[in-house]
């Protein structure tokens, strides 16, 4: 049996009023009396009337939908951030469409084309590791679709940005290792083009500089943000003539690779090699030994990025100045770095 779709015309017929009166009543127009509004609302509920979303989007020039692009939804950091995005979006009457770039520029560009064709109202994005050129995001902005960056940001485009203090997180992690007596501290960094890679590398270098430890190029290796990448780079570091006594990992997956490789090679953490990484705390606590972690407020990052995006969507004017919000990370010490030293 075919389902009958209730329209404004049917409500108007049953109440003996015009379609425009019903439409204004449903929009809570001040031109319509409270008595008529209530009659319209009561009958609409009784008939299970739902407004046509396509018609509403054309009327308002909005779809009440935002896009989210992340490198990998299976990454706990990004799944948590998406939770923050959806929390704010839902509270303000918006739906979300989620895309994964899988760290590929072409996948990211394809997502932006789909976003533009679907009349999505705005975009929250953590850019892929291949995205040195961000013309596809600038194109969206030029089409009137605002874009807000989070976590991985770009200075090549003027818009709101929300990120963590990657520099301080890396500085604190490296300083902690130094205070535990480590002097040959290696760093497995992420891909070079990514903003978080640059900030974390600078924090690492400045901590070494503060304590008079010479920076060694051979102790810094770049990797894809994968467990396999962390494993391979750890094998390379531990094959050096002067092997490191500590390794700082730039992401949770890289750090998992470090942890796995050291166990496979028979090194004890932290006695032989101390380990700290930018990690999800729940994940790091499951490892043996548990890993010292620089944790990040991913849920809050998603919330703040979405609030800024929705303000852009709903504002009639471009803001006089775009914001860059920098949230604080937190170093949580665990057994993987607790070597016997003062500090």
Multimeric state: single chain
CATH architecture of the largest domain: 3-Layer(aba) Sandwich
Low-confidence regions: none
Distance between the termini: 75 Å
Helix and strand succession? Answer: HHHHEHEHEHEEHEHEHEHEHEHEE
Describe it:
The chain has 13 helices and 12 strands. It is α/β, with parallel strands linked by helices and 343 residues long. It has 3 domains: 44 residues, lambda repressor-like DNA-binding domains (434 Repressor (Amino-terminal Domain)); 131 residues, Rossmann fold (3-Layer(aba) Sandwich); 138 residues, Response regulator (Rossmann fold), CATH 3.40.50. α11 links the parallel β8 and β9. The model has no long low-confidence stretch (mean pLDDT 90). It comes from Dyadobacter fermentans (strain ATCC 700827 / DSM 18053 / CIP 107007 / KCTC 52180 / NS114). GO terms for molecular function: alanine racemase activity; DNA-binding transcription factor activity; transcription cis-regulatory region binding. Its EC number is 5.1.1.1.
């Amino acid at each position: 049996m075919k389902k009958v779709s209730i329209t404004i015309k049917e409500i108007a017929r049953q109440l003996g009023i015009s379609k425009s009166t019903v439409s204004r009543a449903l929009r809570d127009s001040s031109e319509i009396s409270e008595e008529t509004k209530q009659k319209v609302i009561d009958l609409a509920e009784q008939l299970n009337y739902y407004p046509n979303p396509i018609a509403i989007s054309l009327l308002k020039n909005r779809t009440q939908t935002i896009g989210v692009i992340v490198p990998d939804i299976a990454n706990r950091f990004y799944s948590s951030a998406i939770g923050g995005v959806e929390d704010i979006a839902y509270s303000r009457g918006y739906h979300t469409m989620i895309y994964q770039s899988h760290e590929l520029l072409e996948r990211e560009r394809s997502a932006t084309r789909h976003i533009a064709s679907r009349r999505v109202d705005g975009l929250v994005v953590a850019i892929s590791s291949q995205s040195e050129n961000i013309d596809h995001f600038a194109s969206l902005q030029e089409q009137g679709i605002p874009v807000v960056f989070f976590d991985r940001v770009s200075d090549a485009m003027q818009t709101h940005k929300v990120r963590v203090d990657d520099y301080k997180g890396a500085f604190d992690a490296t300083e902690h290792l130094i205070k535990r007596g480590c002097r040959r501290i290696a760093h497995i960094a992420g891909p070079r083009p990514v903003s978080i890679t640059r900030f974390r590398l600078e924090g690492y270098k400045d901590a070494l500089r503060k304590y008079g430890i010479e920076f060694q190029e051979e102790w810094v290796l770049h990797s894809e943000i994968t467990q396999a990448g962390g494993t391979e780079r750890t094998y390379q570091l531990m094959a050096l003539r002067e092997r490191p006594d500590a390794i700082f990992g730039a992401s949770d997956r890289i750090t998992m690779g470090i942890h796995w490789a050291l166990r496979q090679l028979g090194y004890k953490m932290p006695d032989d090699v101390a380990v700290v990484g930018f990690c999800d705390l729940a994940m790091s606590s499951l490892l043996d030994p548990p890993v010292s972690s620089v944790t990040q407020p991913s849920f809050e990052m998603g919330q703040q990025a979405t609030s800024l995006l929705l303000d852009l969507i709903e504002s009639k004017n471009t803001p006089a100045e775009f914001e860059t919000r920098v949230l604080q990370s937190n170093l949580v010490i665990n057994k993987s770095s607790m070597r016997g030293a003062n500090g």
